[in-house]
Specification:
This protein is α+β, with helices and mostly antiparallel strands. The protein has two helices and two strands, in the order αββα. The termini are far apart.
């Protein structure tokens, strides 16, 4: 694989070259671990994806039982009991 250079922005951000993103199957939101090997070298590894546990595991579970509503539908349902 050829060497590719990128530039660090003012905010400390760096772009990962497209070839590397494709080979590592990197997508938006994927966590990366940075490890310093020496003062001038570092290694990146993909963090293993673990299923959520505890309360976080329940997020989104209710949507399997009911269809989601638009905000206007919720507001109309809530306002049905209001007096004008």
């Amino acid at each position: 694989m050829k060497t590719t250079a990128t530039v660090v922005t003012e905010r400390g951000q760096v772009s990962i070259p497209a070839e590397i993103r494709k080979r590592m199957n990197l997508t938006s939101g994927r966590r990366i671990l940075w490890e310093m090997d020496s003062p001038t070298e570092c290694r990146i590894r993909l963090q293993t994806e673990r299923p959520p546990v505890g309360a976080k595991a329940m997020l989104g579970f209710a949507t399997t039982f009911r269809a989601s509503k638009r905000t206007d539908d919720w507001m109309n349902e809530l306002r049905q009991g209001e007096s004008t």
